[in-house]
C-alpha cells in the first residue's frame, strides 16, 4: 500500500515556501533550468496533489497570492523569478 497521499490537516504547515525553494534548488543543482513564476505555481500544485491528493481542499490558485513571497525567497537564495 502506498504511503502517499497523506491525510490533510489544516494545521499542517510542511508544504511551505521554504520546501518549494528547496525543491527548486535541488532541480537547479541537478542541471535543470531556472523556474519561472508559473513554474513555481505549478510545482506547488503538483506537490500538494502528490502529498495530499484531492482531499487537501487547498485552492489551486493559492500560490498566485504568494508570488511576492516566492520572489523574496528566491532573491535571498541568489536568484529572481522570471514572469
Number of strands: 0
Number of DSSP helices? Answer: 3
Give the integer mean of the pLDDT values: 80
Q: List segments where confidence is low: pLDDT < 50 over at least 5 consecutive residues.
A: 60-65
Structural class, judged by helices and strands?
mainly alpha
Describe this structure in words.
The protein is mainly α. 47% of the residues lie in helices and 0% in strands. It has three helices and no strands. It has helices at residues 17-29, 37-52, 67-76. The longest helix is centred in the middle third of the chain and has 16 residues, at 37-52. It is globular, with a radius of gyration of 13 Å. The chain starts with 16 loop residues before the first helix and ends in a 7-residue tail after the last helix. Mean pLDDT is 80; it is low at 60-65.
Quick overview of this protein structure:
By secondary structure, this protein is mostly helical. It contains three helices and no strands. Helix content is 47%, strand content 0%.
Amino acid at each position: 500500500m502506498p504511503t502517499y497521499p497523506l491525510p490533510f490537516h489544516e494545521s499542517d504547515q510542511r508544504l511551505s515556501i521554504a520546501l518549494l525553494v528547496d525543491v527548486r534548488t535541488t532541480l537547479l543543482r541537478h542541471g535543470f533550468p531556472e523556474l519561472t513564476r508559473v513554474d513555481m505555481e505549478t510545482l506547488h500544485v503538483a506537490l500538494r496533489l502528490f502529498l495530499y491528493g484531492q482531499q487537501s481542499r487547498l485552492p489551486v490558485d493559492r500560490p498566485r497570492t504568494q508570488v511576492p513571497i516566492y520572489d523574496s525567497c528566491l532573491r535571498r537564495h541568489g536568484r529572481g523569478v522570471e514572469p
